[in-house]
């Protein structure tokens, strides 16, 4: 089976390695000149590590990251945690995102990744699919996977009118710095007033990520550092988070990532007989539940299992879509519940309910 995957992000690379494992001849097309070299840290949950174990890299990823024991705090620094859950519900693995993507690229095989290749759409036939490129002749494939993120061109061709929309007012700022004398256990997340949240955590030995986010962020003025600092002051009441302010103030402007959060609208379909969307291309959500990457890696595991089942490709894709859509209906409900939680205690409660659900209902692949 000749499979073309669009996008060398976290999900595209995992999918590529997963489908190679079941004998597909896979090519990845990526429009950037290199596999993602920038980025902060990403939180991974056990469901993601399970698929990475299947690929033989789970332990490498565990070694590259840092396990974080997650607490919620109010703006005055009072720790909160939902009671009655297994400790695993409060533990996630922080990993430096560029290191993870590079490991996945090496695992899949860099000689099969075509960089600087922009995909503009596709035409599907009974016998094959033609992948259209901005430069050069179309590529012929038996299967096309759109792993090209929230702004997916594959999705635009599959479902015209499905452009990602701004999650109004929802912004995030992040950076990774050499670790200093801040608390090594980090502060995971403080819920401040005005729908702001933020904190810092080690992402690997010697490197710390700070982050700040706000729903209803209002007008953005000044430098990225000014914008992040203004929100961080909400999570630093009573001196509780002075080191967060110090870290942001010391971060070079060019090292700060600022994201307007985008949402992928609910789609009529994720697949056709020979084309499938995966990861953020299918279901990009607000990152306040820190699970988009994990859920995209889960997608890859389900797709691999369905395509390995021996059924016709169209039937396998249909089963993949129906399993993942059911899961995402529930993810959207949890995401909204966490977004609209009132204060730190309720946020901790709703987030634990989400992570408990997510890790105890992992799809069997
Ligand atoms: C601020 C923030 C914090 C987050 N924190 C977490 C977290 O802690 N944990 C977590 O699990 N998730 C987190 N997420 C979500 C997570 O980043 C995404 O769910 C994940 O990166 C999706 O991966 P992907 O491979 O589907 O898409 P992407 O990472 O967006 O990759 C898409 C790739 O496709 C390429 N591409 C796009 N269009 C084309 C084209 N036409 N032709 C060729 N190539 C193309 C792009 O260059 C890119 O390399 C966060 C997101 C944000 C914004």
From TrEMBL:
Residue ranges of every copy of the FAD-binding domain listed in the record: 3-333
Pfam families: FAD_binding_3 (PF01494)
GO molecular function, one term: monooxygenase activity
Keyword Transit peptide recorded: no
Signal sequence segment: none
Oxidoreductase among keywords: yes
Annotated keywords: Monooxygenase, Oxidoreductase
Full protein name: FAD-dependent monooxygenase
Species of origin: Streptomyces niphimycinicus
